[in-house]
Amino acid sequence: MIFGSFKRKLIITLIILAIIPIITLGIVIDFTVKEQIINQAIDIKTQFVNNKADEINRWFNDKERILETIATNYLIYKKEKDLVINSEKVSDYLKNLAKEIDSFSDIYIITKDKEKHNSILLNDEIDIRIKLLYDEVLKNGNTLWSQPYKDLKTGKTFLTVLIPIKDETGDIKEVIGANIFIKSIEDIFKELENKLAADGFTIRVTTLEGKEINFFYETNRATNSFDKELKNINLAALIDGDNGKISIQDKEYFVIQSIISKVGWKLVCLIDKGVFYKNIIKINEYIITTVIFTLIFVILLASFLSNQFSKPLEELREGTIELYKGNYDYKIPMYRNDEFGQLAKAFNRTAEELNKSYKRLSEQTKMLIENNKQLQGMNMELEASYEQLQSMALELNESEEKYRLLVENMNDLVWAIDSNYRITFVNDQIKDMLKYDKEEAIGTDIRDFLSKIWYFNSKGGKSANLDSNFEKLLESDYDNIQVVLISKNGKEVIGEVSTRRIFDKGKLVGVHGVLRDITERKKLYSQIIRKNEELFTINKISKNLNSTMNLDKLLKMVVDDIVDLMKIPLCTIRLLTKDNKLKLMAYSGELTDIIWFDDIPIDEDILGKAVIEGKIITTSEFTEENTSKYNERIIKSGKVNCINTIPLIAREKILGVLAVATKKEMNESQITILTSVANQVAMIIENINLYNGLKESYLRTIKTLAATVEAKDKYTEGHSYRVSKYSYLIAKHMGLPDKVCEEVEIGGILHDIGKIGIKDSILTKAGGLTDEEFNEIKKHPTIGARILQNVGFSDVVMNVIKYHHKRYDLKGYPEESKLEELPLEACIVGVADALDAMASNRSYRKAMSIEDAIKEIIRNKGTQFHPEVVDALVDIYRRDPETIIEISKSYCG
């Protein structure tokens, strides 16, 4: 019977107890966890698709940056040459770039007249697809990408990108474009497809309008039944915005989509909802599996309990088997004190004795094996030594032939001389390098070829000059010394030589060396040094160009730097006035005491010629025609043989000239430096003029706002203006920075702007105010701060508006519990406000004198007013009382 044994009863009971909670847990999981798992799976796939879309966008951005860098280098090269670039050279340059850059098939530049460099088009005509893209670039002035298309020549699929190249005025003169292999981006799409296809997704790339792009799958995408269904379906019409589900032929699909904004593509990933559930949700299988494993566990547990009684005998049986196998370390655990325990103890002692005997036999066997190995090793060493001797003899015969071939085919000149400087060996390179045949050189004194010899240090140039002491070649070995040789046709060749002396029984018998032609490298090094000097000079001058907005100070620093760095006797900057005269703005050099300080008409001197013609004018021959009263003394000084005039041009407008007088004509490098400096100076002059214009307009607007407030009360007319002037005077006297002084002045003008929000009846009331009316007046600092909080004024201006009625001891209004110290700018305007209030007529009292008002301020020093601000006002009045009195009378009716 089924319940006839305890073991079966135990197994059935445990199964029943285990299966009830498992079934309950499975039902709960099916109703609650399943949907959460599906949502998380969709979120993970969505994030993966978005990441791939971002990676594709970065791919397009990388290609744009590469093309923009090429365009920038092209413009720099073009600007340096300042002339029309040879079309063939540009085409070769672009072709080479395309070969060096992975994924680029072709790079080309199209000018506005359709002239092309490195064109890829058929019959020298613009491909209509590129032409449409090119016309759109000209129209919009933006970078544009094409959709994938097949090249008419090669049949390969490309993407085309066109980027406008704009001149200084912003006009598009040229367009740089590149054809990019579509296959260079396929790896990203393959990774996306491989990742999602494994889970049952179908991936499509479409335009934003829904048109499918198939160029990525021309050769490697298998066609299934769902793919065929999609060919006749407009996905854009089915997918509404970010909708995550659609229905196709009575089937519901999950949809994941992401935008590739750079080229207007959309990644659309679809999966049958039923398939997705089948792949993702396997909770029921897990539950069934869990139940099965639980049942197995319960059965095993019951079996374990029933088998505990037979375990000792099984262990003894296992121990016997282990001894039979030779495992003499095996021990039966003695966890009982009964007969089974005693039997285990006897078994363990027997195993221990057998183990000792086995180890003794093993040690003896090991010694015999080791002795045998040593004998075998000695025999193998003897055989190897014999083979090595044979190999060395063979290599020695081959090495001489290899050495000869190596020397004969080297690009460097290999030579050897004896102790009398006679050439004993030279390779064939002497023909290419010095135009001599080997036969002509052999036996010749090597000193006949050498004209100079020196050490060379890459940082310091020449060093440790050997004074052409060729005998030193025999005194030491040298590495990388430089020599000048005379070729057969008389040309100098610069070489880099390493030498090693040859000794025989301690006696010098010769020298051999290797010489490399570095003539071109030396020329390039000289060019680099010259360019570095140009950049150093330009950078040193440029550092000062952005240090100040004061035009006079700026121009003075420029001429001083030019004179100091270029070691010239005179440099001037003159700016063009409205009446076509050149006004002297800055000058420097030893000849400044004889220059013409007045304005110079542009049609009466050679300086004006640069303005009229708009280009650099260099005068090195002085005649009656180019000598005038303005430059006569400079020319006759005997220290000037050349005058260079560079126009200052900004935004195609000539602002003035930079004139440089030199003892000798300037080289191309110096002209380049001056041209660069002149361009930078012109732009900064233009920016300073624009800044000053904006600043004046800004101040006029602020004064208009203040006048609007004061128009309500004739007694306060001009009050804000006077307060701003007092405040600026005090701030300047206290040594505050110019910017802070200007902001204090603006704060003074606007300090009462909050009175716009106070009733006119209170502002213009004759006599004293009631407590309620005074409380309204006390709100005007807070109102003013609230009115201007979003305008963008600095903290200095806002502190003045909010705290100008706050006392130095932090009494007064508005109440501010977090304020620990009154800002200095508020203290300054507070003193200026009190001074003007006491020195002006009001409807309820007569004005005090300036002196009495200052005395009243002194009496409240340290309590109501900041001590240092009061001291500054007193010092100003003591030194220059007329200035204070003149301000007090401003805007008085």
Provide a compact summary of the structure.
It is built from 27 helices and 23 strands. The chain has 893 residues and is of the alpha+beta class.
Polypeptide structure, described:
Helix content is about 50%, strand content about 20%. The chain is an alpha+beta fold and about 900 residues long. α18 (about 720-735) crosses α24 (about 825-840) and α23 (about 795-805) packs across α24 (about 825-840). It is extended, with a radius of gyration of 48 Å.
Write the layout of secondary structure elements.
Blueprint lengths: L5 H76 L5 H14 L3 E8 L4 E2 L10 H13 L3 E2 L3 E2 L6 E10 L5 E10 L4 H12 L4 E6 L17 H7 L3 H4 L6 E4 L2 E10 L4 E8 H8 L2 H25 L3 H15 L13 H70 L4 E6 L4 E4 L2 H6 L3 H4 L8 E8 L3 E5 L12 E9 L5 E13 L2 E11 L1 H27 L5 H16 L3 E7 L4 E8 L11 E2 L4 H8 L3 E3 L12 H5 L5 E9 L2 E10 L5 H43 L8 H15 L4 H13 L9 H4 L7 H7 L2 H9 L6 H9 L20 H15 L11 H10 L7 H13 L1 H8 L5
Antiparallel strand pairs: 1-2, 1-6, 3-5, 4-5, 5-6, 7-10, 8-9, 9-10, 11-12, 11-17, 13-14, 13-15, 15-16, 16-17, 18-19, 18-23, 19-20, 21-22, 22-23
Helix pairs in contact: 1-4, 1-8, 9-10, 13-14, 13-17, 14-17, 18-19, 18-24, 18-26, 19-23, 19-24, 22-23, 23-24, 24-25, 26-27
